[in-house]
TrEMBL record:
Hydrolase in keyword set: no
The protein, known as: MFS transporter
Organism encoding this protein: Microbacterium testaceum (Aureobacterium testaceum)
Principal place of residence: membrane
Cellular component GO terms, alphabetical: plasma membrane
Example of a GO MF term: transmembrane transporter activity
PROSITE patterns per UniProt: MFS
Location(s), subcellular: Cell membrane
InterPro entries associated with the record: MFS (IPR011701), MFS_dom (IPR020846), MFS_trans_sf (IPR036259)
Pfam families per the UniProt record, alphabetical: MFS_1
Region (Disordered): 1-20
């Protein structure tokens, strides 16, 4: 390490940011492309779980139970996201953000492609759902490791005054992934309608992942390592056991940060988890809309989510992360209460309106998340901190949201129970946000580790 070039000679400024706008554009482009491919794969599974997996892999359990089992496999993968976050956090804090991003991209793409060629229950029996669950677990491990690396590459490369906007770049991969997944499924529902969709149409979007993974890999290879990590490596200040240090000093902060994301994630998984798709297209349900129409509506709402995520990132630099979140929570609460009344009208136009309204709050509470998380944790354990907080928040929020929604409707006969459940999660996220101090603009480099280690939790001076 003693022969490594200094950060000044390597083109880095003393504040830990890249000195050229061209490098920054490459980072933004690479994080958007990479996370889009990752979340396309992840959401494709969730949408297929709502549309076809219950019939193809779990049918012997009976119509109602088969669908619940299908949604449970969506949530099961979330239980393995902390494992991915632990592994990625350890590797990312010791060996760099870039290497983790390459590994997670390949793992996710390979798992998704294999799902596209997986035989169904009718062909190989119980081995079919077992293999499906195994591949979903690998997706969960990959998703748990992906997010932290992507957001830190974006935020740690960003100018201080634009961290929230730069951090919104990998966040855009989520609505873009949903848009791409829903769009491909909607296209295949038209190309291969009815039984053809069940036989082979659903497989095509999964097989497309192989091509997307090659594109994502090529783009990410062109990106330089995070300047903050290079600075740590040059000074030989990498932590030996970052996860141990994280939980020894910042356990409460991890929990509060997880609750912030849980509020957003529970609501978001009404569409990304496939619940609305299943509820609105179920021929035996109260809505009974065409699959292609509902997938089209979800695709349109993904565009709206994309726009408001970018707006949330931009506003986060203007008024601060915390204030942006609070506005977003208020908007999300409105969206939660109008969603099902509009869906239950059986009008595809009003269903689309309900989904679009929901995305206003989703975007405003997702756009500034990367900057908020990155500014909460010290440089030496930042990858572990943001990754594990995100993974735990996903478990507490979206992991079993579709399963809970399905069970609530079956138990009560009304979607109002789902509305109150989602509203409770939004309030929980808002309270967690209020507990945190806004640390917008705090220096991110290792020179300021002492300042970063002061707890952002109100009422505490140290973590």
């Amino acid at each position: 390490m003693s022969t490594a070039p200094s950060r000044r000679s390597a083109g880095f400024t003393p504040t830990g940011t890249i000195s050229t706008s061209g490098d920054r554009r490459r980072v933004v482009f690479a994080t958007v492309v990479g996370t889009t491919v990752e979340w396309y794969d992840f959401f494709l599974y969730a949408s297929a779980a709502g549309l076809v997996f219950g019939q193809l892999f779990f049918a012997p359990a009976g119509p109602g139970v088969a669908q619940i089992l299908s949604f449970l496999t969506v949530g099961l993968s979330f239980l393995f996201r902390p494992l991915g976050a632990f592994l990625a956090g350890h590797l990312g804090d010791k060996y760099g953000r870039r290497v983790v991003l390459m590994i997670t991209l390949i793992l996710m793409g390979a798992s998704t492609t294999l799902i596209g060629v997986l035989p169904t229950f009718d062909v190989i029996g119980v081995a079919a759902p077992v293999l499906l669950i195994l591949l979903r677990v690998l997706q969960g491990i990959s998703a748990g490791g992906e997010w932290g690396g992507a957001v830190l590459m974006a935020v740690e490369h960003a100018p201080k005054a634009k961290r929230s906007l730069f951090g919104a770049a990998p966040q855009l991969g989520v609505p873009l992934g949903l848009l791409l997944a829903s769009g491909m499924l909607a296209l295949m529902a038209v190309v291969a309608p009815g039984d053809a969709f069940l036989v082979w149409g659903w497989r095509v979007p999964f097989l497309l992942s192989f091509v997307l993974i090659l594109i994502g890999y090529y783009v990410r290879r062109k990106v330089e390592e995070s300047p903050v990590f290079l600075e740590l490596a040059e000074r030989k200040e990498k932590t030996r056991m970052p996860i141990v240090q994280l939980f020894r000093k910042h356990a409460l902060l991890v929990l509060i940060a997880a609750l912030v994301f849980a509020g957003n994630n529970a609501v978001g998984y009404m569409t990304t988890g496939g619940y609305i798709q299943r509820y609105a297209t179920n021929p035996d349900g109260p809505v009974g809309l065409a699959t292609a129409d509902v997938l089209g509506a979800v695709t349109l709402s993904a565009v709206s989510w994309l726009v408001f995520t970018w707006i949330g990132g931009w506003i986060g630099d203007v008024i601060g992360r915390r204030a942006t979140y609070l506005i977003g929570w208020a908007a999300l609460l409105v969206g939660v209460f109008v969603l099902f009344p509009l869906v239950n009208t059986t009008s595809i136009g009003l269903l689309t309106l309900g989904l679009v309204v929901l995305t206003v709050g989703l975007g405003l509470t997702y756009g500034p998340q990367a900057a908020l998380y990155a500014e909460l944790f010290p440089a030496s354990i930042r990858f572990s901190g943001v990754s594990i907080s995100y993974a735990l928040g996903a478990i507490l929020g979206g992991a079993f949201a579709p399963t809970i929604a399905e069970a609530l409707v079956k138990a009560t006969g009304s979607t109002m129970s789902v509305t109150w459940y989602l509203a409770g999660m939004v309030v929980l996220g808002a309270v967690a946000t209020l507990v945190l101090r806004d640390r917008s603009g705090i220096p991110l480099g290792p020179d300021h580790e002492a300042e970063q280690s002061v707890s952002p939790v109100r009422g505490l001076s140290k973590a």
